[in-house]
Queue: 2 jobs
Job 1
Amino acid sequence: MRPTRRALPAVALTLTASLLLTGCFASSPGTDAGPAEGAADGRIRVAMLQPPRSGLSPFSDDAFKLSRWSTAETLVVLDEAGDPQPALATEWTRNDPRTWTFTIRQGVTFHDGSPLTADAVAGALRAATEASPKPRILDGVELRISAEGDTVTVTTGEDDPLLPQRLSSPQLSILAPSAYTGATVNPVGTGTGPFVLTEVDGTTAAHLDRYEEYWGEPARAGGIDVTFVPDGTARAAALRSGTADIVEAVPVSQAALLDEETITEVPMPRTNTLYLNTGSGPFRDPALRAAARDAIDRAALVEGVYEGRADQAEGLLGPAIPWAAERPERSGRTEAADPAGTTITLATFSDRAELPEVATALQQQLERAGFTVEQVVREYAHIEADALAGEFDAFILSRATVLDSGDPAAYMVSDFGCDGSFNISQLCDPAVDQALELAERTPSGPERRAAILQAEAAILNTDAAIPLLHERVIQGDAGNVVDSAKDPRERLLVTADTHLR
């Protein structure tokens, strides 16, 4: 095992690879399709998009890095449909609307050699609830945790039918008690996954070795060597030159320069949506919202801006959520009025490179339909407050539709409920609120999914949000990489099954 240079704070999660789709792709020096050279002892070299932003804190999005490295695990994982499946918990029971009991898997050891016990699990979960700030998955959520024998009981402050899904978040992974003894949480050598984190080089690199005592099927690769490469051109070059085996988030502009066999496009639960201000301005009129709806040419956006590497939106939820295709037929759409030169402000942000281009294309489409369009583009930090305050008539947003629990209801409530905290459309519609309330209180499974699709239909009938397209992320693998995960939720990348030929 490599010597530990510096122990950094973090917690993470590993999802079971068989629950999600996997695949592979390739590169070697001077070509795009051959096997990469230089990987020793079956170690996999990964070039990642973003360096740690919060010192690998488990209570930030850095937790997803450790999840993608398979170095720590949660009690529960999600299958492709978003339903909970056993991981460090083998089973669970809902005792009453607010109380759940989880049975902890036996025979598991942490990477520091200590055993996984109910007390250790309870301590890890309490650390998350007591953190400041709390993990995003616990925002507004009250949990009380107790351990008895080989079970952990979790009591929520309010009815929470999604508690098992909530416990699948990488921000609630379970580390050894020794991880929590200092001022910060230390993920180095304290997880339970098939790879043990042995070394972290600040925001530059990280190294993991195969954990020989893993409770499941052992890792097929000898280890993982991670480098953080924020520049997309440099990441693509690493794939071409053979200095990386797996590359995260290849930019659309670079994808055309790579052999198609070396890249995989993964549908993401992220939708580019045109939010229309229903609270003030011209789009208070449903007929003008309908005119904007009818003006949109989604195919032109996908082909012209995304070079065909996106999916035209049929609803708020896209192909990354397989059951969204079961949406019901809609009726009751408002007829469009003639805009007759109505002036509107169309805003977006520059942090995502494609959005200003989308804004320009939409401006042209809306003007052809008869609107007069004034465009506003700023950095997100300087435009979010005005968007939430209803300062714009229309706002283009790239929005994750499945948040940490793996369930779209939270996103819909946030964005379209009367009291939603991210209600850019200023929407307050009784039919929408009623549908959202039903979706929120329905237990997970087919009935909840049907209720979510009914809520989606209610939202779309208002034309407060016009979904444009669903994004894809482009991932690259070297030709000798086998079974890297292609995970729409971005929780998995290198799993126990991933290896080099």
Job 2
Amino acid sequence: MTSELGSVLRGWRNRVSPAAVGMPGGAGRRTSGLRREELATLAGLSVDYIVRLEQGRARAPSAPVLGSLARALRLTHDERDHLYRVAGAVVPTDRDLPRHITPSLQRNVDRLSDTPASVYSAAWDIVAWNPLWAALLGDPSTLAPRNRNLVRLLFAEGEAPIVRDAASRLVFARDIAADLRIAFGRYLDDSRLARLVDDLRSSNSEFAALRTETAVSRHVAERKTIASALVGTITLDCDVLTVPGSDLRLVIYTAEPGSADAGKLDVLRVAGLQTFATAAQAC
């Protein structure tokens, strides 16, 4: 079983070109697919762990690790299920909160290159993002996997680089808590969602208080001001679109054409992406 896991990981890694995931190809590559360090970067794992998985020396990878690998490798649902099986893990079912991105949805995110775009789960786990998103809001791959969650970051660490006054933050916190209540009611068997709610309820008094409220609603849109080290403060419209047939959310930031904020976004597109590309080449 373990040798099959290593075999499929190597095969899937070799079929994904760097260009397909927004990474520079470069000359002198021994493979047309992803290097181990590139897969590690995309999945938020260490290179050593990727090596141990492929060589059969790492056993029983967790469901979050397998989910990250499935997304990074652009696996279909059937391929993702096979990955879970050969790793000896329980295959996600319809009772589990969807976190897997299909290759077609990933391509849509990749092609939205002129605007910051990302994909979140119904529990507000960020599961995909494009380079402009990372340039504007920070690169989620630098966070530990459990911290790639908007709700956890909001209540445990704050919303930086989003700029809000106290009243606006309270409105947003209530909005997100009401949205999370929908996911919690729909996916009662999802252990990761239950752990998130239990962790925050026991460690954060604000979240615990909001859990006692009964509002239920979806968070769909708002205007946000972001403090960027490259372009200063920039105010953008943020829209949340639910993916048909799934509770995944496509989140997109846009600026009114011809506005000062649109000009700042153009600057960020050039300067920010150059910084991001340089960092990717150094990996």
